[in-house]
Phosphoesterase (Caldisalinibacter kiritimatiensis), 153 residues
Amino acid sequence: MSVLVGIIADTHGIIRQKALEALKESDIIIHAGDIGKIDVINALETIAPVYAIKGNNDKGKWSNRYPETEGVEINGTRIYVLHDIKEMDLDPKREGFDIVIHGHSHMFSKRIYNDTLYINPGGSGRKRFNLPLTVALLHLFDGGEKEVQFIHL
């Protein structure tokens, strides 16, 4: 059995229909900050349970319910979520995290560093810096295998 994790970030208050379609099969959704409006989370929750953290642009009462970082365990895989990777305040490997999910740069990427998988789903809200709008899907398979797919919106 596998678990499909939808990953989204930097929506800045915009939830595109294409993003919802791309994430529609997700078992769980992670939002890596700069949500913009609670409406974004409400729309994502119609698909699956959502883990969300606040980004540097998330202000106001509605955003107080979201932490700045969060540790999540899904199907035996430990995931650390923060908005800006430059603000990483721990050693993921030492703390037992298998994956780090982050946003902020609006650039989709995946890389492995020190046996930890780092994923940035890219931005899916306002188009910025001539970068494509993207979300990511993370397939967590039994036995620990992981597969990341980026979807251009």
About this structure: The longest strand covers residues 134-141.
